[in-house]
Amino acid sequence: xxxxxxxxxxxxxxxxxxxxxxxxxxxxxxxxxxxxxxxxxxxxxxxxxxxxxxxxxxxxxxxxxxxxxxxxxxxxxxxxxxxxxxxxxxxxxxxxxxxxxxxxxxxxxxxxxxxxxxxxxxxxxxxxxxxxxxxxxxxxxxxxxxxxxxxxxxxxxxxxxxxxxxxxxxxxxxxxxxxxxxxxxxxxxxxxxxxxxxxxxxxxxxxxxxxxxxxxxxxxxxxxxxxxxxxxxxxxxxxxxxxxxxxxxxxxxxxxxxxxxxxxxxxxxxxxxxxxxxxxxxxxxxxxxxxxxxxxxxxxxxxxxxxxxxxxxxxxxxxxxxxxxxxxxxxxxxxxxxxxxxxxxxxxxxxxxxxxxxxxxxxxxxxxxxxxxxxxxxxxxxxxxxxxxxxxxxxxxxxxxxxxxxxxxxxxxxxxxxxxxxxxxxxxxxxxxxxxxxxxxxxxxxxxxxxxxxxxxxxxxxxxxxxxxxxxxxxxxxxxxxxxxxxxxxxxxxxxxxxxxxxxxxxxxxxxxxxxxxxxxxxxxxxxxxxxxxxxxxxxxxxxxxxxxxxxxxxxxxxxxxxxxxxxxxxxxxxxx
Length: 577
Prior knowledge:
The N and C termini lie far apart (69 Å).
């Protein structure tokens, strides 16, 4: 619904631009001062195509580009794989590098004509990645706004844009992970949707060509975006009201154009790159992964407390509620949007690595917000008509929770390692990290009272020195048999010096159950990682262990690293029932 000014949605667009630029400049300055990089982890896997081809000319073993990347503290351990002793190939597709190519070219020209090092990672190249991300953020919301204003009021469009930007995990990926593909795919999808609308309205081929170009680059960037083809195909069926064989044939031509263009782009860029660098026409970068369509991971992907979409983006519920209102008010767009959303989401939750890396929330759905903004807008239109202020208050609360949870992830309160409800509950809304919270990740802790007359001490040791001990075998500290459920309270006062421990290779307190029980029990509490102060710290925690006849409870200390561990005092009490 167009008005003469549409000032509210324009204001939101300007705010998005200002916040994006300010946040980006701050981050850019930070990484260049530290000689780090905006491009890292998976993002480096997309980026290395450019530096290896145009600067280092080592698109067979990638050793020169890896060496340069490590100077900027970039992890280079998994982005390429060995094909044989002398040839490696990149895990990630080339499409994102195609998007970055003009920005990389401009950065390289600046670097070669200035005092900067033309190594693919110095400040000009970082600026190139930064500028590209800002442009695609604005591209996405600009065309979102232009499309939505044909259907919805200015205020509804403004609120929809605000929620997508600040009320979802889009904000995190548009500013903290700008070398991943999501912000760019969001921009391409937004432009494709607007171009399709204009094509069906004005019947000008230039809009169809723009839509096809967006689709082709998206598929080149992430092969799963082939599902975008459902949108123009289904939209064409509904708009053209296809009933005859000739109409079906005409619509099939459109589908063929989209598919053929994507295939052509894949051959020209991706397959040719494989052939030139490896001698093979195709290599599978995801050979260790697959889809499990019979057992989609609905719980972990949508509702889990480690990555669940609805947990870390609670306002996503409005997307699905909005499908009802989209159906009632805009059937033209409903079928293509709904079918695409349903099938694509099913694809995402069927991937065997449902975590999609150590990132915030349910990552692979972020680019879909460019289309989810349609049902969101229709849902907001209804809510603002019926319960305006209640809706705005609830939305404000949920946006605040979303931003706080993002801040918790950035500040390592929400961890990159897997955790469940107990840890989520323990750190919910916390503003500062507390290493003691990690105890519940390793040990299922419980709350129960410690009545003095029911406490039986089964272990008490003063002064236990592991300074010179580097034994991979755990040292047993207690053992007893029982046939009933037991409650243990463990208290430990200790010091730790050194940092040679790894993720799991750490000093641990191990408590396990052995015997004939059908319910196994083993916990290994990693000691250095949970300390507030390595010089000296005290921890206490409770456990409940269900035991059967013939079960034995074993306690041991494991210290298999060359760091110094000194136990000042350890006491384990059995709380009698």
